[in-house]
Amino acid sequence: MTEPTVGTSRAAELRRQLTEELKADGLITTAPVERAFLTVPRERFAPEVTLEEAYKKGVVVTKRDEHGITISSVSAPQIQATMLEQAQMDKGMRALEIGSGGYNAALMSELVGQDGEVTTLDIDPEVTDRARTCLKDAGYNDVNVVLADGEDGCPQHAPYQRTIVTVGAWDIPPAWIEQLTPDGTLTVPLRMRGLTRSVTFTRQGTHLVSTSAKICGFVKMQGAGAHTERLLLLRGQEIGLRFDDGEPADPDQLSGMLDTERIEAWSGVEIAALEQFDTLQLWLATALDGFCLMSVDRALDAGVVSPQNKLACPAAVDRDSFAYLAVRRTGTGSETRFEFGVHAFGSRAREVAESMNAAIAAWGRSHRSGPGPRISFYPATTDPQALPEGRVLPKQHGLVVISWPDTGQVASHNLNDKE
User: Fold this and answer.
1) Average pLDDT, the chain
2) Which residues are catalytic?
3) CA dist 231 to 4, 248, 318, Å?
4) pLDDT of the residue at 251
5) Which residues of the chain have pLDDT under 70?
6) How does pLDDT run across 157-175, given as a tens digit for each residue?
7) Which of these, 100, 230, 295, 399, has the minimum number of CB atoms within 10 Å of its CB?
8) Which residues, at least 6 apart from 297, have a Cβ–Cβ distance to it below 8 Å?
9) What's the rounded Cα separation, in Å, for the pair 419 and 417?
10) By 3-state DSSP, what share of the chain in percent is helix, strand and coil, each rounded to 5?
11) CA 356, CA 369: separation in Å to the nearest integer?
């Protein structure tokens, strides 16, 4: 065989292997998505890396900013499979992708077929030029590639039966809703109190209601839709508390807090070694005022804190005290289990620890095996009395409401933000 033929054969084998892995992981569940992954040559959209690297289950970075932060990439295939399955595209549909890279648009093109239409847009001309070149090289000449700020959607090719946002969004601009057909859906990596979930929304009158929500991660949106979280540094730059909203009114109260005794308290809620607990994070973000994410600089780590996750550990601040999620091993070998608990600091450490442990226990009783929350998006002008019960997160363009199923085991609380 000639060298190009060998490369083509190897690429096809790697596509098959990747697709089988995604099926085994339960991420590809339908035949159309499977066919799309078997068909689209991912390597054509990642020429910067080797063939093997292009088909790994990870992100292929295509552009970084001056600080080395990723601002454009070919997303991890497991995330793309998840979102495409959430969107449930069909032949003949008109679809929009906000945040371009080329590969995902090609997958979408396979799903909607020759009678459908795919538009992909991005705010960065380097990204759209690259996407256009890669799509042409892979034979997807009918995809509309548009240079525009995603905040405004793409009115010239609207309306859309499916819109997929492939950048992290803090808000949902009106254009995204207005450009949907009445039965259209929006799949968006929505950031809520620092946690991102890929949420598929359907329209119900003037508001949106989720049909699914999956854990995910994306580069943040640029342009008019950009939103910067508040970073509060403790102990120099060793520990950071990241607030997406509801930051402390007087952060100086936390000065010296980490010099107090660390209080440890355990909830009695245990999980198996491989058990998923992503709903716990979102439940804590819903149940706790002062919720934030704690990050520890590994290079400066002096061991003052020992969080469950040093990159983004759920935490909560209450005036001059704070607590964060901790985990300890409670079993060994095949019986390995882990118990959730809390480490807390400050003059009210025990009280804050008890509050977080109560929330963990409530999750363990009522939500660990449940369907997860319903996430709704309402216009900003909605009468508060018309909103469902839940945590209300004010955004620029509307109100996100996170509501959990009523099991009768969790006391009713006023979970609205006090902003």
Assistant:
1) 89
2) 75
3) 50, 11, 16
4) 84
5) 1-7, 59-74, 332-333, 407-419
6) 999 999 999 999 999 999 9
7) 230
8) 237, 238, 239, 240
9) 6
10) 30, 30, 40
11) 19
